[in-house]
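Q: What does the assembled structure look like for these inputs?
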Amino acid sequence: MTNQAVIPVDADIMDLAEEFLRKRRQAVPRILAIIAANDMGELRRIGHELKGTAGSYGFDELSRAGAALEEAAVTEDAERARDTANRIAAFLQQVALVAR
Amino acid sequence: MADAKPRSAHLLVVDDDADHLALIERWLALEGFSVTAVGSGEKALAVLESKRPDLVITDLVMGGIDGLRLLREIHRHDPVLPVIIVSGQAGIPEAVRATHLGASAFLTKPIQREGFIAEVEQVLADQVGKDAHEVRDFAPKIIRRSQVMAELLDRARLVARVDTTVLVTGETGTGKELLAEAIHAASGRSEAPFVAINCSALPEELLESELFGHEKGAFTGAMTRHEGLFQAANGGTLFLDEIGDMPLSLQAKLLRVLQDFKVRPVGSTKAIPVDVRIISATHHNLEELVQHGDFREDLFYRLSVVPLHMPSLRERREDIAPLTTHFLDRVAARTARPPKRFAPDALRQLLHAELPGNVRQLQNVVEQCSVLSPSDVISPAFTTQALHNRPSNIPTLDEAKQSFERRYLISVLRAAEGNVTTAARMAGRNRTEFYKLVGRYALDPAQFRRRKTSKKDDETDEETPPLMGQQME
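A:
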């Protein structure tokens, strides 16, 4: 993931996009807890949802991370899941939105 | 561009992912649509109770009532309300199933704003644009004047466009196949074949290989590979007539095909994907058959996504006159003579007749009168006779052919005095073929030999017709 993620977003959905990212930041601890509890079913669901919804918002990197989370859950690869969750956390810290 | 938007359209959006729901709702609202957004299938059904939207957009995977069940529930009450399904899964089976259940479009998340809006507008445009000229062009072969038929055909016309599974119910002779053909002709599949099969006409094993095909050597007599009607109808419509008479074991196989749209020919290990719309028909009350365990409930629900009921001729008496004219015109065209017409009293008889055999019986009566009447105006004597000659059971074409064939063979054998070689020559068949025919009807040529002492036997042999189907070896 890049250091500086500046992502253009349609001005007319800017508030929704920001709200979406805020909720994802809040969800990071929960994702880590789910991985720690080895609840792969729930992790898969979260990854799957992130893949679709982040993608529709135009956050392609986040969408790919969601897909990786889903895959890690399917293959029960806790280490990969943790790595991915950390990448997601880092991305959410760096990301900045610009209106287009 | 904003001018072209159908701003009056009201859309219902369903998704249990609040963020995705909010995004879609915003996109649509920005296009000028009026949008109701709900977070579950249950809430969607509640909204639908009070207001009919112009389009429903639903997520596929949801807790509780999911997208497919919502689609089914919606179309049970309103078969023409368009539904777009959005899924996180790009799986082909889901998409195929959704299309067969009548989804107007199937989109995969993530979705692109422009593509999504274009899809929504397309579905709405399809809904509006086609109406006007289709009303007149739909089902030209179905003669009607009655309100009950107008309503039925309206519904059928709209259903034609949605690629959904249809069950046509109605008494024998009401024209269920004509309706199925009309739906096919008005559908997106009209360029592909319409294939019809009567499920009650064939024994179980034959029906199975007819439907699903068989491999060479799959059973005794399977000399070559046979494709099967599902494959023959690929891309088009398969019409399963008299579905209520399908044996239970075959019902299970049919259900499997409807679940994954793959057929497995008899004796083959390979499953072949097929894209076929199923229209089935029955004169039975399928719900009753389900209750008695004669028809699978799961199959019933798959087949009756949209039920259409063909009214009996008694329920549409105002159609008898135009139907009569139509059949008279047809006889005239066939015989290249000006059409005859019914005397007022004769027509009145037809208008009030019982006609349990429905349109098919009316057609038989009209044709019989038209052919028999020496005058251009058909007198009531002919209608009286034709109506009374017709008990409630009209034989099927196959039964009629068999009955004719049997009587014909008897008369030929009698004329040839039981000499098979002579009889075969008279019938224009070789000896072997003629023996087979005679065997099929369990006739014994020896019975027709003229013996000087028992002349009377020959005259009375028709009294004891051997049962059909008892084959002589």
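DSSP finds 21 helices and 14 strands in chain B.
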